[in-house]
UniProtKB/TrEMBL annotation:
Record-linked PANTHER family: UDP-GALACTOPYRANOSE MUTASE (PTHR21197)
Protein name: UDP-galactopyranose mutase
Any Pfam family: GLF
The UDP-galactopyranose mutase C-terminal domain, residue ranges: 150-359
Organism listed in the record: Aeromicrobium panaciterrae
Length: 388
């Protein structure tokens, strides 16, 4: 077993580093992942019952305005012209999201012009007196009580399993309202879904004679190859697992939200007519339902069955998959002390969403990995500069 570099984690961050180091620098790269599949949270698989591609860790939509990232990812896959839209059900009525002129006019049974809608929202928002002291007040100060009650309150309470009046105002800095009928979800220059699915894309990145991917292998399990005790100090390591775990939770746990998914195959061709339906009412336990067939209208999927996935949100325990950083003031303080430890950890670089305790979209994870390659790994391996 020899390699020039060990990468812990086969998500987009790890595979981007693997690709650049193998293809550009001709290094021998070993990648390990503790899961039984490649790709981290972007992994998808074909549901055996319906033949429909399912994103196992929640719907993944690719979008970016970064030309370098877009050109980079297009080496590995083509993209469909898919454009994401989201709707929300509130009190048995369906509204377009994000909140836009169509949402407001439907909600108010009105025909406001953009200017009239803006004036209405400003008037509602002005009703909050004083500085907002919690998330609820902050939201009301931004969009007013009526829109908050309908579209934010229940959804947020379910996402955080906490009354929004007990959540910090800082969790939201803005709640965008569009005063046009544009309900395209993302506003990036480039958007689409990988034509042959996420897993084919991720596998293509790893498909090189210099790259070895070993699954079911945990960096912290000393009975397995490529574990921390054996490797650190021997060869450089890029670590994309949780930074608090790396340091044995020495400064305490960083807190995360996790998601639970329940999927169901239904004997009908179309359940909801759209890929993602949010549920704004607090009385419905789940936050949203994904119907995967709608991500690929170009595919030949069966018209007598469909697969849906209900999404539930809660705080993560040690054994749960960490999904979204909670980012309390205590978390931020702990993160700073972990960053200090990371700096002193010679020949180990920390990256990706777990290694930096940051929510990163796929294009951000890829962009950050390309920067780490440019700024740290290439200078180290070509000019012998230290890795720190
Ligand atoms: P990950 O994909 O998490 O990969 C890290 C890998 O490290 C994992 O495979 C893990 O098993 C492995 N690992 C951890 N610890 C160890 C260990 N001890 N030993 C070995 N391996 C280990 N992005 C978008 O652009 N669009 C979206 O629509 C979108 N939707 C999302 C929905 C959800 C619910 C979530 C959670 C994320 C979403 N993302 C989306 C973000 C996307 O998943 C991330 O950008 C991407 O996963 C980041 O890649 P990564 O390599 O940093 O981390
Ligand atoms: Na380091």
């Amino acid at each position: 077993m020899t390699a020039d570099l060990l990468i812990v984690g086969s998500g987009f961050f790890g595979l981007t580093i693997a690709d650049r180091c193998a293809r550009e620098l001709d290094l021998k790269v070993q990648v390990i992942d503790r899961r039984d599949h490649i790709g981290g949270n972007a992994y998808s698989e074909i549901d055996p019952e319906t033949g429909i591609e399912v994103h196992r860790y929640g719907a993944h939509l690719f979008h970016t305005s970064n030309k370098r990232v877009w050109d980079y990812v297009n080496q590995f896959t083509d993209f469909t012209p898919y454009v994401h839209h989201v709707y929300t059900t509130y009190k048995d009525e369906v509204f377009p999201m994000p909140i836009n002129l169509g949402t407001i006019n439907q909600f108010q049974r009105a025909a406001y012009t953009p200017e009239e809608a803006r004036a209405w929202v400003v008037e509602q928002a002005a009703m909050l007196e004083g500085e907002p002291t919690n998330l609820e007040e902050k939201a009301i100060s931004l969009i007013g009580q009526p829109l908050y009650e309908a579209f934010i309150k229940g959804y947020t309470a379910k996402q955080w399993q906490t009354d929004p009046r007990e959540l910090a105002a800082e969790i939201i800095s803005r709640l965008p309202v569009r005063y046009t009928y544009d309900n395209r979800y993302f506003s990036d220059t480039y958007e689409g879904l990988p034509v042959d699915g996420y897993t084919a894309w991720l596998e293509k990145m790893a498909d090189h004679p210099n790259i070895t991917v070993t699954l079911d292998t945990d960096f912290f399990d000393e009975s397995q190859p490529w574990n921390k005790a054996d490797v650190v100090g021997q060869i450089p390591v890029v670590f994309t697992g949780p930074i608090d775990r790396y340091f044995d939770f020495k400064h305490g746990d960083l807190s995360w939200r996790t998601l639970d998914f329940e999927s169901e195959v239904l004997p009908i061709g179309d359940f909801q007519g759209t890929p993602v339906m949010n549920y704004a009412d607090e009385s419905i336990d789940y936050t949203r339902i994904h119907e995967f067939r709608h991500f690929h209208p170009e595919r030949d999927y069966p018209d007598d069955k469909t697969i849906i996935m209900r999404e539930f949100s809660r705080f993560a325990e040690h054994t749960d998959e960490p999904y979204y950083p909670v980012n309390t003031p205590q978390d931020r303080e702990r993160l700073l002390s972990y960053r200090e430890l990371a700096k002193d950890e010679a020949n180990v670089l920390f990256g990706g969403r777990l290694g930096t305790y940051q929510y990163l979209d796929m294009h951000m994870a890829i962009g950050a990995a390309l920067s780490m390659y440019d700024n740290k790994l290439a200078p180290h391996f070509t000019n012998g500069l230290p890795l720190d």
